[in-house]
Write a structure and sequence with these properties.
4 copies of one chain form a homotetramer.
Chain A: E1 3-11, E2 14-19, E3 22-28, E4 33-39, E5 43-48, E6 51-55, H1 59-71, E7 79-84, H2 89-94, E8 102-106, H3 110-119, H4 121-129, E9 133-136, H5 140-146, E10 152-158, H6 172-181, E11 182-191, H7 198-214, E12 217-224, E13 232-239, H8 250-255, H9 265-271, H10 276-284
Parallel strand pairs in A: 7-8, 7-10, 8-9, 10-11
Antiparallel strand pairs in A: 1-2, 3-4, 4-5, 5-6, 11-13, 12-13
Helix pairs in contact in A: 3-4, 5-6
């Protein structure tokens, strides 16, 4: 009966609030503020610097869409680099592919990983249990800057917004290093913000311009993420060779027999069909 | 600087709030409570019984998706029945088609229409200006019960949620009367709630079961509606003859040269590709 | 059932909120923003620049305490100057004294008066009905600067907080002009902020220091005002001659037979007994 | 920057909210829900069943007024019974009197004491450090029912509201047992709710009627408690012999040289002067 509400401002005049049954922890790390909460509707959820990162109820949508889309295009992903993603949800989905041999997960803040291991095993338990996952607690921009050329088939940028620690992951230098670290047929997926509220649309445009200047193929796809601002969220798909629709092989992916709650092969192509206003924003800017 | 917030509870522990620059009017009619507000991010918006109906900023998504999907399938819509839709946004989109000869708009509450004409001309101005639109202020269930057989090519159910005045528009009797009032190749589109929060998913399932029992073809499509609960919203497409994807004619629709902000012909097919959990809900229930 | 809440921040991290049944009006004047609201618990209330000025439910406490305390001390108030007080509540109490011959009410913003006459007749109706009240819509600092020496027996400063239009009413110049405009045995009562939350306590101290430097007798008294920050509110009593306790004549006041809901002659003396921390603040500062 | 707010509803349409920097603990005991929070303005505070019990910033007002008023009347308090008061603040003030020989503190819920010892030493540290304090974790009604006749000079009822575990402490049986357990010149002080919001005023009246039927002398006094509903709070003073004003000995109390932040001997008498509407409520009911 204690009346305790977490709120996130999606715009200065738009507030999304979740009633909290208890706060599980609150920690200021050298990089950011991390809070874990319990709630009835969303189960456990955590925030970084006051913004929802993942909830037990809808994290599946995000992690399905960041991971399965590239795997349904690339014929043989063996080496994966995850930048950010300290909650482990992206690694969990990646590790479902038997062909994956090596996963480097680079999160600047070890505390995100440790706290998710403690409070959110739904996403983080794979980080302990799968020996293919290698944790690196350092700046993603620096890590990818040092990476050998052509080391990765897939880079997944599972970052916070481009403020604070996540800022470097939205720069030209970062995307160029990703390009270099990828194989000739490698794929980059990046958390691409949202087209709806102006501050998010602004970052969406900035990221898109930079990726388009770096990769010959750069597409954007959308999904429903109810606990993120507006619920309308995007990922970017960039590659030197593969087009996410033309080179999509649904039968190959379906043959893997993976059970998913959000992604499916009909949705794959559909996700790249964007509302007209989003297409126009991406093509012509605000 | 006055701190005044409108809130809507998407679940008992989930609250979506909009800062209001002023309340434009508040009226209790014999049917429902109607409030109009001004806000910075969403412009003018109105609520019925405390739930957001339409905002200036995102009504285009809803009205594009209720209207253009059936028009891109049916080859010659001439007579249209709109049930609910007193804000005029659905009628506005319908009236953009020159082939349309007659539109009956049936809203139980004349005050919705009159207040939208006063405060929300963006959606309602067509109700005055287009002579094809005929307003009827009565119960939609009774209107369609009296309608002649095969009167309409298209019925658009633009209703509130199935509580209060909207309740009758989610019944077997209503859907059967719609079936009767439609031509042999007529199409029914209905506001189909949302799959995400439990109370909405529950109504989605109830409506779907009834429509599926009434029409041989019954599909569901989705779109992003940021000011509705979870932002993940659905319409139903039901017909005696047309399949919304197989009978879709993009070139015919594109030839009309209509400028839209949300709908486009790529999105048309895409909208019918649903996330796995939504498909499973619709097929097997909760 | 519409969920609409007015909030006031008593500190950056303390919020007092009232559920509003409807907003009655919202007007930006050349001086300030004025909003009127209806609520169940407080009835009609109005705010200036987002701060509660008066509610139907508890205005009696404020208006009793600003008006009756000086009348129970001064033997013969005939001419009264009210600075601010556009809602009329202070004038209403002053006009209950038959000995009062002339009341000048100076509010910089005519709209406060006009809107209170329309929406809050409980306080404002006296402004029309009592011919002794003379309305002046101009800056209080200038009005009192032009006032003849010794014109008033009583000056009541019923101002907003010292931000915006109310700022000049908390200056040395203002208090000195009040001193000049008062008769030799005149009394100044001023809205004296609150000792509890730091920003209010800060203004309380600044006002007190200036009044003490201007008047030989300067005391502070307290009362309970639930809709003001912390509910702990103060008035200042300053005079050239009268001490509010030593010169208090309860029997004379009681003989008038005035019915009041907050003030009484026991409370009169009691109100000048302050908590130790307030006394220490006033004597030694923060 | 995490936006987390605790709220308390003072009425169904009145909400008081404190921004929380972190939740320190949340525990459901067999009796009640206990939560501790940190905040900037109020420091650490705790709630029981969602209602603020004590904050670091303003607990001094409550504990000064419950404890020092009876000690300034009764000439020689030696044995004290505190019912409730598990936070220790009342015991802390009582223990400042060297004449006190024995203090029984009876709180039904040991967890209140243990959590306050951990998180709120400002009030609770005395419970460890003063050997005169004897803790009893049982129902206050039963404890006082078993107490010997004339055991206590002073009973302080520092209870929660009359809902849940606190309910028995607002009954005829309880007050009669207090009467029996008190010496011939003993004093009972009870937490007496508030006159302002209707649900609190209702309990105030019920308590007052019962105490007045039990003790020949039954008075009510008020103080400012900003974090309690309306900020206007009351204690009851009941006795077989002493009148709190007529038998008040300020010089004796001042001679003790106790430093206090709220209570002082001027305020003592003043606190018993109530606003007219409160007097009328107490005399004639709602």
């Amino acid at each position: 009966m204690t009346d305790l509400w977490y709120s996130e401002y999606h715009a200065a005049d738009v507030r999304f609030s979740i009633k909290v049954t208890r706060q599980l922890c609150s920690e200021q790390t050298p990089f950011q503020k991390i809070d874990f909460f319990e709630s009835e509707t969303f189960g456990t959820f955590f925030t970084i610097d006051g913004l929802v990162m993942a909830t037990q109820k809808d994290e599946f949508a995000y992690h399905d869409m960041i991971a399965h889309v590239p795997f349904a295009v690339h014929p043989a992903v063996r080496r994966v680099l995850i930048i950010g993603g300290g909650d482990g949800g992206t690694a969990r989905e990646v590790c479902r592919y038997p062909g994956v041999e090596h996963v480097d997960l680079v999160d600047i803040d070890e505390r995100v990983v440790r706290l998710c291991q403690q409070y959110l095993p739904q996403t983080a338990s794979v980080l302990d249990s799968d020996p293919r996952v290698h944790l690196h607690f350092e700046d993603g921009l620096q890590f990818v800057g040092r990476a050998e050329e052509g080391m990765y088939d897939l880079v997944l940028v599972d970052s916070t917004d481009p403020v604070g620690p996540g800022e470097g992951l939205f720069t030209h230098a970062f995307y160029q290093n990703c390009h270099r670290a990828l194989t000739e047929d490698g794929i980059l997926i990046n958390q691409h913000e949202s087209p709806y509220y102006p501050i998010y649309a602004h970052e969406m445009l900035r990221a898109h311009a930079k990726i388009r200047a770096t990769f010959p193929i750069a597409r954007v796809y959308e999904f429903h993420m109810p606990t993120y601002p507006s619920g309308h969220w995007l990922f970017g798909f960039a590659s030197k060779r593969y087009d996410p629709v033309a080179d999509f092989r649904p039968e190959r992916w379906n043959a893997l027999g993976l059970k998913t709650r959000y992604y499916n092969t009909d949705l794959h192509t559909a996700a790249f069909a964007l509302p007209t206003y989003v297409k126009e924003l991406l093509e012509h800017g605000a």
